[in-house]
Specification:
Keywords: Transferase. The chain has about 160 residues and is α+β, with helices and mostly antiparallel strands. Helix content is about 25%, strand content about 30%. It is built from four helices and five strands.
């Protein structure tokens, strides 16, 4: 029996309840997931060969871009409800495309958000983000979750790097 699509737009391709999401940026932090979803779904460490988490101009979060010798480290997020998928999709910029990828060591492809416009040549630094921006980003994520319409930044829901 076929299930209904989980949503419109990018989510229209997802059917059924068992879709995992490879996260490689801010969504791999339990604090951010809690601010957005009110809980931390299952997170398994994972790597994606042939891709990298790239620094983006004037943004605190990365974009996943193809890289012949790259390796994006992150996690596979699973057990998301349709409502949670909709929250995470709204949280992502329009410059992302939802695509299926094959994460190292997994037989079944998972979904991920791939960056579709120009990215910096430098890789995003997870530890630096955690040390310098995670607390503020988490607080801002919680405010966005309460009032998403109040965030009008062209770089997503208000996540521009104030130091850029």
């Amino acid at each position: 029996m076929a299930s209904a699509a989980l949503g419109a737009g990018r989510l229209a391709r997802l059917f059924g309840p068992d879709h995992a999401l490879f996260v490689y940026g801010t969504l791999q932090f339990p604090e951010v997931l809690t601010a957005l979803l009110g809980r931390v779904p299952s997170l398994e460490p994972a790597e994606l060969t042939g891709w990298r988490a790239a620094t983006l101009p004037r943004r605190l979060y990365p974009g996943l871009v193809s890289a012949a010798h790259g390796r994006a480290r992150g996690a596979v997020l699973s057990g998301l409800t349709a409502t949670e998928w909709a929250i995470l999709d709204a949280f992502e910029d329009d410059e992302y495309d939802l695509r299926r990828v094959r994460v190292d060591g997994r037989k079944v492809p998972v979904w991920t958000y791939v960056w579709t416009v120009a990215a910096d040549p430098a890789d995003w630094e997870r530890d630096r983000f955690a040390a310098e921006h995670l607390a503020g980003f988490t607080a801002r994520s919680a405010r966005w979750r309460q009032e998403p319409a109040s965030f009008f930044d062209t770089a997503g829901p208000g996540w521009s790097d104030p130091g850029a």
